[in-house]
Amino acid sequence: MKILYGARRRALQVPFEDPADLDQADYEELMKVEDAEVTAQPRRIQEVGIGKSGQASSRRKKEGPGFHVEQLLASPGSLKQGQTLAEREVNLGRRIEKVLKELPKGASTCEKVAKTPRRLITTRGAHGQRLRRGLMEGAVIVFFTTGYEGKRFIYEKAHALGVRSVLIDSAGSWSEKLVEEGLAVKFIALDMSMSSDEVFREALKAIEALEKDPKVGAVDGVATFAELSVPVTARLAEALGLPGPAPESADMARDKHATRAALARAGLPSIKNYEICCEADVETAAKIVGFPAVLKPVSGVASVGVKKVESIAELRTAYLDRDRELRSLVISSGAIVKDDGSQGTTVGADNVIGARFLLEHYLDGDEVDIDVVMSEGEWQYAAVSDNGPTLEPYFNETWAVSPSLLPRQKQVELKELAINAVKALGFEDGIFHVECKYTTNCGPQLIEVNARMGADLINHFG
């Protein structure tokens, strides 16, 4: 091997077999530079540790080649080997434990997060999870409406993580007993027969008063796992200056017609659709969308009021039947059920869900759920699960399986559509339950975006 060195490209060649074998004599020969070259290129020569006198810098060890030449000839030179992965993990764990120990006592979660380096908070793996759980411990989280009793596991998990839960729901809700059981610190009863704006204002007033409550204190976050409560929860977060989705994004997700418009603006795959606000719109909708088609409430949930139609006659009948069905429903303990006269002080669904409908082109193919976790505008997790064949014409789901049995490429395409749909609605952070189909002729197509955690079996899938 030969090393070429010289100013003005005048070569000085020193033969040796290995850079580590460069001895003192070779090094001294390598460092000889003519005075004329020194004068012509002092900057270049100084860069490798030579002064104007042609002598080696006094800072360099005289017995060795020094930093610049060592890195030029035999990098990494005399540097010690870096830490092993195991050593890095140990050191990371020690640092995170130190951060947790030094967090101010009695500080709110927001204050703790502000004092913690961002790159540690987003660290992947067990140590990162330990830090995030440590930051969450003691946090005061308000849950606006608690859903049906099957969601009890959410509040049990929150308690296990050290969260101090405040629950807002109707008087007599099943969740009132969670305070007695020690799973929540406070229950706030609201009259849900009020208008949405009145409920919002009453909830905001109650949450703001918690700061002076010695048993609770300042609130760190607001959340919901109930589909109908997403728009109010978004506005509560905004009014309180807490993390949450923009209200306009939450509204678009709840409005299937607005969701379709957002997809079109973003250049994403979509289908023919038309909003039906009254019976007079039915014929126009049929002409624009065609058949087969699917009629559904614009802001519906749980496939309530959804039906496949094959003709204009079926559409007219379905529209009138669907409208009557919605107005006969009641909301009991966070669930939408048929009114059998025994529900007591429940709220008629016609007070909550407007009678607007959407007619969409029928989508064939496999129906799937894609659950997505977003943070700072980028997805952190996305998983596809299969729904199994839905029972037409009402599209009742039959079963679910995870991981998906679809080919990998189809899953990739479905994930991309789901993530892009969430972004098209303007969401940057949160958990989303996205429903799609992989159609025979049009590839992946969106059904809807739900700006909350999936229900039923989804939350049990890893």
Automatic annotation (TrEMBL):
Alphabetized InterPro entries for the sequence: ATP-dep_AA_Ligase, ATP-grasp, BL00235/CARNS1_N
Location of the ATP-grasp domain: 260-454
Organism: Polarella glacialis (Dinoflagellate)
Disordered as annotated region, ranges: 46-66
PROSITE patterns hit by this protein: ATP_GRASP
PANTHER family: ATP-GRASP ENZYME FSQD, FUMIPYRROLE BIOSYNTHESIS PROTEIN C
Keywords tagged on the record: ATP-binding, Ligase, Nucleotide-binding
Pfam families, A to Z: ATP-grasp_4, ATPgrasp_N
Protein name, as recorded: ATP-grasp domain-containing protein
